Structures are given as C-alpha cells and as structure tokens.
Automatic annotation (TrEMBL):
Highest taxon of the lineage: Eukaryota
Gene source species: Didymella heteroderae
GO CC annotation, single: endoplasmic reticulum-Golgi intermediate compartment membrane
Topology versus the membrane: Multi-pass membrane protein
Protein's job: Plays a role in transport between endoplasmic reticulum and Golgi.
Pfam families reported for this sequence: COPIIcoated_ERV, ERGIC_N
InterPro entries named among the record's database cross-references: Erv, Erv_C, Erv_N
Lineage, broadest ranks: Eukaryota, Fungi, Dikarya, Ascomycota, Pezizomycotina
Listed name of the protein: Endoplasmic reticulum-Golgi intermediate compartment protein
UniProt entry keywords in alphabetical sequence: Endoplasmic reticulum, ER-Golgi transport, Golgi apparatus, Membrane, Transmembrane, Transmembrane helix, Transport
Family: Belongs to the ERGIC family.
Annotated ranges, domain Endoplasmic reticulum vesicle transporter N-terminal: 52-139
Subcellular location: Endoplasmic reticulum membrane; Endoplasmic reticulum-Golgi intermediate compartment membrane; Golgi apparatus membrane; Membrane
GO biological process, one term: endoplasmic reticulum to Golgi vesicle-mediated transport
Domain Endoplasmic reticulum vesicle transporter C-terminal: from-to ranges: 202-381
Length: 419
C-alpha cells in the first residue's frame, strides 16, 4: 500500500512537474511563431506602389524565390548570332544571284566599234595604222584615229600609270573574272565618247599615242601597226631600221561601246622588246570576241538580244548593257629583215552570246527567311540552354551523392563488419 502510494505520489509529482514545465514551453513556442510572423501574408504578393495594383499576375516575394543560373551571357550570344545571320542574309539578298548562260547569237549584226588607246615607242610620222577584215575591206585607221606625239619616259618608270603590268609571251588572258561577273558593277559604269587628253610633253618626243574609236565590219579581221614603208607599198624616203621600236603600252583595247572603267585583258598592259637592238620584232595578239549581255532584268535582256544594228547593240540602259568581252593569246618573237615587224592584232567573232543575269528575290520572301533564321536560332538556343542546365543539375546531384552525406546532411555511419 505504501508502495502504491509512493508510486502514485511519484506519478503525481512527475505529472505535476511535467505539467508545470510543458505549459511555459508551449506558450513560448506560440509566441515565437507570432514573433516570426509565419503567416500566409508572408507568402503573398509583394507590396508595391500604384503600378503593382494593376498587375494581373502578382509576384511572390524575392525572399521565397530560388534564383536560377544567370543566362545573360547566353542571351547576348543568341542576340549577336541572330544579328550576324540576319546581316548575312540581307547582304546576300542585296547581292542577288548571278547566272551565266550561253546561247547562239540572235539577230543580224553588221558593224562593230573598236576602241584603241596605245602608246608606241616610235614617232607618229614613222607609223602606219591599218585594219583589214575577212570581207576584204581595208580601213586606213591612221586617218580615223588620233595621233599625239609624246615621250616614252612619260608613260614608264616612275611616271607609269597604276596597274600597268606585262603580258608575257604565250600567256592567255581570260576575257572576264569573278569581278566582271558582278552585274551591278557594269550597270553603274558610264559610256563615254571621248578619251582623256594627252599630257603635255616637256622636251623631245620619241613616242606616239594612238587613240580613238572606229567602226568596222563584225567579221574576222586584222588590226596592225607597222613602220612607214614596211608592209604596204609607199613612195618616200626610206626609214632607217635602227629607228624601229615597237615596244608599246595598251591603255585600252575593247570592242563595242566605250566604257573606260570596264576591264579587258589587254587594258593597262606593257610589252617591251628584249633588248634595244631588237628592231625587227613582232608582237602578235589573237583575240576571241564573245558578245556579252549584263542585265538585272530579263525583259531588258530580251530587248537587247534582238539587236540588229551597231547603235542598238551598243545600247546602254539602266538595267542592261550589251558589249563584247574577249580572251587573248599573245606571241612575240624576232623576225628576219625580209619580214614585217610591228604590232598585229587578229580578232575573231564567236557565234555565241554570253548572258550574265543578276536576279534578286522579292522583299517578302526575304522577311520570311529572316523570321525563320531568327526563330530557329532562338528555339535552338533555348534547347541548348535547357540541356546545359539539366547536365549541370545531373552532375551536381551525382557529386553530392559521392560526398558520403546522410539523409539529414550528417556524415553517414559506415557499417561495421562483425567478426
């Protein structure tokens, strides 16, 4: 009995003590909850000014948000990529697409204009300029072209024009290169009728500048510059052979309308005799002429393709131009005194036409391509960033698992093996 009472008292004492100690503890925990203000308002929308009251999607306070990885650098990279691709696509649209086609020349052409600007290392009075074609017509080009006395030193050495180069013997020069296929470059040039003036000469003259344009038959022909009394019968004083010097500079050699800025294989070329004693020297050029049309309009090309006169063939329009390009082969060698030295140009007309057409797509197709490019970059960039984020998260979890941490963040206890 006493034992029971003792136990009962013990229980009461224990209960009393527990009751006395638990009540204050419970009261203190509630007060701490109130002090920390862990209520629903803490997770509500952040308080703001007047603008936030109109926000249809309230935002959570930053305290309860987990900030993700900073993707500003990746966003800037995507923007720069979009700008670069959009620029290249727009530049390609402005440049257009150039196509080249060969076809049999249509229409009947009779005449062809020849433009020449050449400096020969002999006096003008000692030179003859003539042209003869396959039709048997002989043209006294010396009477149609202009001859200006000049000095050879004025065109060579330090005084040489920019871009003057030597066309070596046996070298083949193409009639056009990649720059010549840029149609807008040709359409922007201006046709001229006059050549530049000959600079004034100080001192004695020992060379001759022959320049101008002349019309001939559009057939195979020869154009040659020879010494007086050689090549053609002529009465007069015999010309001393020591005065022969057929070194020359070709500033312009073209067929069709005269466009000074249009490059041709023989333009700005110089040809010299091996030694000053090589008086009997022959320079031979073989030209293969191809009628060429540059245009950015198919309608203009059809109009030019039916040209049947020299005036129409040399038509210069805003969207089309018809001219002639050529390829050249050069041969030069010493000839015996029984032969005729000089500068000989033999040309032949090809029965085909080269059409270089530059086409540009419409504006709205360009807009569609730009939208596709930009949207494709943004979508692909978003996928790449998500894959990158997942990869970092995967490797991060794998690294945390290998640290030997327990579930509660404490070091895991290793199992002991029982002996």
């Amino acid at each position: 009995m006493n034992g029971y009472q003792q136990d009962q008292g013990y229980v009461q004492d224990a209960g009393y003590g527990q009751s006395q100690s638990y009540a204050p503890s419970q009261s203190y925990g509630y007060q701490g909850y109130q002090e920390q203000k862990l209520d629903d308002d803490a997770f509500g929308p952040a308080k703001g000014g007047i603008v936030s009251s109109f926000d249809a999607f309230p935002k959570t306070k930053k305290t309860y948000l987990v900030q993700g990885r900073n993707s500003s650098a990746w966003t800037v990279t995507l923007i720069l990529t979009c700008l670069w691709l959009a620029w290249t696509e727009t530049a390609r649209w402005f440049a257009g697409t150039t196509t080249q086609t060969f076809s049999v020349e249509k229409g009947v052409s009779h005449d062809m204009q020849i433009n020449l600007d050449i400096i020969v290392g002999m006096r003008c009075a000692d030179l003859h300029v003539n042209m003869q074609d396959a039709a048997g017509d002989r043209t006294l080009a010396g009477d149609l072209l202009r001859k200006d006395p000049t000095s050879w030193a004025q065109w060579t050495g330090r005084n040489a024009e920019k871009g003057v180069h030597e066309l070596h013997a046996g070298e083949i020069g193409a009639g056009w290169d990649m720059d010549d296929l840029e149609v807008h470059n040709h359409l922007s040039v201006k046709q001229k009728k006059k050549f530049s003036k000959t600079p004034r000469v100080k001192g004695a003259t020992d060379a001759c500048r022959i320049f101008g344009s002349l019309d001939g038959n559009k057939v195979q022909g020869d154009f040659h510059i020879t010494a007086r009394g050689h090549g053609y019968m002529e009465f007069g004083e015999h010309l001393d052979h020591n005065s022969f010097n057929f070194s020359h500079i070709v500033r312009e050699m073209s067929f069709g309308p005269y466009f000074p800025t249009m490059n041709n294989p023989l333009d700005n070329t110089i040809a010299l005799t091996p030694t000053p004693d090589d008086h009997f020297y022959k320079f031979q050029y073989y030209l293969s002429i191809v009628p060429t049309i540059y245009t950015d309009s198919l309608k203009a090309m059809r109009a030019l393709d039916s040209a049947d006169s020299a005036a129409t063939a040399g038509l210069f329009a805003q969207h089309a131009i018809k001219t002639n390009q050529y390829a050249v082969t050069s041969q030069s060698h010493t000839v015996p005194e029984q032969s005729v030295p000089g500068v000989f140009v033999k040309f032949d007309i090809e029965p085909i036409t080269l059409s270089v057409v530059e086409e540009r797509g419409g504006f709205w197709p360009l807009v569609v391509r730009l939208v596709n490019v930009i949207s494709g970059v943004m979508v692909a960039g978003g996928w790449a960033w998500q894959m990158y984020d997942l990869a970092l998260e995967f490797w991060g979890k794998r690294g945390r698992r290998g640290d030997g941490m327990g579930v509660l963040g404490t070091p895991a206890m290793e199992k002991k093996s029982w002996d």
